[in-house]
Amino acid sequence: MACLFRRAIAEQVSQVLGLPPEKLIPHIHAIQVHRKQDSPDFQLYVNSVPGDHFNATSQVENALKLASKLARNSVISEIRTGRGSVTFRINRDLLTKTILRKINQDGSSFGMNSELLSNTSRGLTLVEYSSPNIAKKFHVGHLRSTIIGNFIANLKEAVGCKVIRMNYLGDWGFQFGLLGAGFNKYGCEEKLRANPLQHLFEVYVKVSATAEKDDDIKQSAQDFMQRLENGHPQALSLWTHFRDLSIEEYAKVYKRLGVRFDEYSGESFYTEKAQDILKLLKSKGMLKTTGDGKIVVDLSEQGDLSTHSTVMRSDGTALYITRDLAAAIDRMEKYTFDEMIYVTDKSQQTHFEHLFKILEILGKERVSKCQHVKFGRVQGMQTRRGDVIFLEDVLDEARSRMLQNMANSETSKTTEDPADTAEKIGIAALIVQDFKGPLFSDYQFQWDQALQSSGDTGVFLQYTHARLHSLLNLWETREKEEFDANCLQDPSVSSTLRHFLRYDEVIHKTLKELQPRYLVSYLMGLGHLANVAHRSLHVKGSSPDVAHARLLFFNSIRVVLANGMRLLGITPLDKM
Ligand code: ARG
After folding, report:
1. What's the pLDDT at 1?
2. DSSP designation for 33
3. Centre of ligand 1 from the C-alpha of residue 139, in Å
4. What is the position in ligand 1's atom list of the atom closest to the CA of 169?
5. Prediction pTM value
6. What residues does each domain of the chain span?
7. CATH code assigned to 2-90
8. Please, what is the Cα angle at 487 between 482 and 493, to 5 degrees?
9. What is the pLDDT of residues 19-56, one digit of tens each?
10. HSE on the CB side for 430, CA within 13 Å?
11. What does CATH list as the number for 425-568?
12. What would the pLDDT profile of 377-423 be if each residue is shown by its tens digit?
């Protein structure tokens, strides 16, 4: 569709310049819609054309020259020039028919087969995200990792990659020594079963506080850890118990959030393999000892340890990075992935730089396919209980605030399950708030701002979707694809069609940069266009043909909106 038009333009230009159309297609852009302004549909900047086809120094002249050699045809109804660009308008009737039909036929795959995405690799992508630490806080960083990773996985899947969604739990380390040592004293099996995450966290907090003052506890934590490392059955069974219950609990909350995993991996899988890594590093002569007794890999250019990564404690135990090395190599061997993406906050930037560097020194070529997607910090996300400790708290808070807003609003419809509706809106609000800016930036979180019903929020998207959905209840002949394009002559339709032309470009850019903000702002634009169209195109009281064409048009908006929302990780609501 957008492709069909880009191709038609490219073919015209190709005849003049002698360049294959494929080379031109990526430079033919759908023009962004500005409020109420009519404009052409596509533009080609002459300075973006590959090769040197133009001799005038002025791009304006070059554009004029190119335009003068191009001819209109059954697809292209108008050719003009902008500043340094040639602009094209597509035959209205054809544009309307092609796009609306395509959206109604393709449904959720709309835009995903675009020619712009033809160079996208569609192999096996492993996305590792969320990765909380058992018995510790599930902080806002983990929430960000969860929703960003989920979004990346959705997007990759949508363009045709096979995706493995992996959660790499912090399920090893001294916190388990403490838990093992402290559970007898502070733990309670009943409480553990009732609310595992909360109870483990409580025990952990208590026993760490005690261990600060009490050397006996510290010692028994170390002993417990030692037993765990040695695979002592009793210690292991307690550890497994904690881990299993925690995962069960996480899974419930992920489900509320609409997030899933194919695999729960974790640091614990790599305790032995981390020792193998140390042996390997040693055999390659890559281990050095620093003045303070740490065992490191030297990453400096000059070999003077000015940059290094600590991979072993003086007592021979492995560290976070050592387990990550083992995990990466294991995944390379097991999955031969085409791409692996780690999603964490930017405080781990150096960690991943070091990880990739060591893998490279070890000659692991697949490291060139590994990528760290990093994001900034969220400030001020508080719940009524205070700081965020559990993911559940954030979801509960979003839900209860949203329920309150719904109760205060006159336009809210009664839905069957208001709590569920509130939750889905609340989650949409969290996601949009988080995805609005560049991922790398820190931002200040405010509930009131995130939950506003107007403005660029997730609530607005949900509201727009629900409104379109209820309008479509009037549509009785959904299967009838034929419609009269003459019934859709309205500036609001024209703008929306032009906006649809940009969808694949936006997906392309979002995918290339792995930045959801492009998609978010596209959907906001679509939402506003939907509202404008809603005001000017009445369905009730129109003749059957007009009503049908308009409903088909509204359905197209709904489909594209829902597709985009789902990619972001939002479940579009039919009613609210
Ligand atoms: N559990 C870690 C944390 O909470 C994040 C793990 C990220 N993934 C990795 N392969 N290191 O900080």
Report:
1. 57
2. P
3. 12
4. 1
5. 0.95
6. 2-90, 125-379, 425-568
7. 3.30.1360.70
8. 100
9. 999 999 999 999 999 866 788 999 999 999 988 888 77
10. 31
11. 1.10.730.10
12. 999 888 877 777 788 999 999 999 999 999 888 777 777 899 999 99
